[in-house]
């Protein structure tokens, strides 16, 4: 069995939905979807059904992109917690996996829920040379992404550590850790989230159009989860930067689709494309399986 990865599908966009529909059927396969399928519950369901037709097993965790978001409150939902419950219930109805599972091929896949908090950012603010001024003001974190205005969390403030802790508390991995320790100590483990567990997985502020993006992308609680799992690979999304690096024995990979314009630019620049190559055309060109286990 091969394990594939994609994130940030933006299937609300008809171009991206067609890209999903044009994927070929992959025999003996599992797909990890690291967040951001769509905003509308119907679109999320349609996209996941398409992916289930192409892959034997689909794993998924909700995300929080800058343009559409599974957890943005929409008509029919009292708040974003209610929307999250509806998304997870939809996945259960469809057979999309949102909980840890040991695949028949001998690989643990572990979805992780998370939410970003502003003090995840520990890089100092940009410092200007003496006498220099900024050509444009640095946007605050709440302006870097749309989640602050589009999500409603009763009793919590967006960007707060308390909200990030609330998300982390939704999952109990103790039974999995004990099972792995006792019965499967050498079995590989792939964890995935939408958000970043390490700030080093984001370019430095001097390279970012929005330097405060670092305040809206990651979670310390998520880092603790990845470390506790001792993951061989951790997959993530959200920032729309293709990524493949190794830190402290864990390989970190982001393999996003993004918006049509982003996908078109990324196709020529990204190395190691796998079956998801051809994002701008919807065709699946065969290349080496850099992101397949």
TrEMBL record:
It comes from Aureococcus anophagefferens (Harmful bloom alga). It comes from the Eukaryota. Residues 268-293 are annotated as: Disordered. Residues 268-277 have a biased composition (Basic and acidic residues). This is Calcineurin-like phosphoesterase domain-containing protein. Residues 283-293 have a biased composition (Basic residues).
